Amino acid sequence: YKVSGGLHGVGASVVNALSEWLDVTIHRDGHIYFQRFENGGKPVGSLEKKGPTKKTGTIIHFKPDPTIFNTTVYNFETLSERLREAAFLLKGLTIQLQDLRNNQTEEYQYPEGLKAFVHYLNEEKDTLHPVVAFEGVQQGIEVDFAFQFNDGYAESMLSFVNHVRTKDGGTHESGARTAITRTFNDYARRIGLLKEKDKNLEGSDIREGFTSIVSVRVPEDKLQFEGQTKGKLGTPEARSVVDAVVSEKLSYFLEENSDVSNLLIKKAIKAKEAREAARKAREDARTGRKRRKKDTILSGKLTPAQSKNPKRNELYLVEGDSAGGSAK
Question: Across residues 303-318, what is the average pLDDT?
Fold first, then answer.
């Protein structure tokens, strides 16, 4: 295989060591082979040659050791979610999950891959355009990216490395976000929706209601994770590769779909205006400039009266600031 979600090559060994028993059935080179292990991975007998076969593949059966684990009852929904993700990421692959405890069976197959994944995530939302999906390869790193905007406010980006979920993100997510922010700003200025005097849109402005998935396949010699849980990708090359692929493909999409592009840019500009208004309101509250309505100064040319008794106050009209003298 070209890529693997593992790093240390001990996954099957650990399962074997922590199981009460483990059976391995292998279909290879026209023959069926069988080996059983018990009590932490000790082989029971020699490798057996069972008979002929036209199939290929490996079948694993194991029983977790109850003296090691507090619970050995597997949750169907947890397994279903993980296997569904795998089927989305490996388009064309068929995965079947059977629960013999209650005869519950589910099958997963998604020929459209990440496009179907984004549709699944957004199926209960009001979307603004069809799902966009593209792929690319640079420096031996394969990139799949898909996205769709909805009319909500929350961003949802899922990322994967070698088909393993990276819940803490990493360099591939950073590359995608950088490319999205830069490409949208460049396009907005090119078509004149952002003027020269206007500040750039921030990433959070653009990604309101943004559902996306970035999946990369990184060769073993370049694969780096931060920490032992593989929750965050650390491969430096992944940032630049994802940035380049997403920038190129997204720029082409924006140019070729002007109606959708203009809609998304205007949506981001409204988000920018709302963010700036909210920030100004916070600043006003912090600095004490937010006054009650009756105390509000209507113009910077007016000077507040010292007394709150209207009988002691007068209105002076003068021509220019200098004529006001010390009253100002």
Answer: 78
AA letter at 202: E
Q: What is the rounded distance in angstroms from the CA atom of residue 292 to the CA atom of residue 285?
A: 11
pLDDT at 292 over 80: no
* Distance of alpha carbon 61 from alpha carbon 78, whole angstroms: 19
User: Which residues does residue 135 pair with via DSSP β-bridges, in sequence order?
Assistant: 144
- Please name each of the domains of the chain with its CATH number: 12-108 (3.30.565.10), 114-280 (3.30.230.10)
Q: Exposed, middle or buried by CB within 10 Å (0-12, 13-18, 19+), for 51? A: exposed
Residue where the block lists tokens 């700036």:
276
CA gap 276, 284 in Å, rounded: 12
CB 222 within 8 A of CB 229: no
Q: What is the pTM of this model?
A: 0.81
* Phi, psi values for residue 252, rounded to 5°: -65, -45
Q: How far apart (Å, rounded) are the C-alpha atoms in residues 110 and 92? A: 6
- 194-233 residues labelled b (16+ CB within 10 A) or e (exposed): beeeeebbebebbbbbbbbbbbbbbbeeebbbbeeebebb
Kindly indicate the confidence band of residue 300, based on its pLDDT and cuts at 50, 70 and 90: low
Q: Residue 60 to residues 42, 95, 182, 229: CA-CA distances in angstroms?
A: 16, 15, 47, 24
Strands 19-28 vs 95-99: parallel, antiparallel or unpaired? unpaired
| Residue whose pair of structure tokens reads 């803490």 in the numeric block | 168
The three-state secondary structure class of 58 is strand
> How crowded is residue 27: how many other Cβ atoms within 10 Å of its Cβ?
17
Q: Pick from 3, 50, 8: which is nearest to 29 by CA?
A: 50
Q: Quick one: DSSP state of residue 65?
A: -
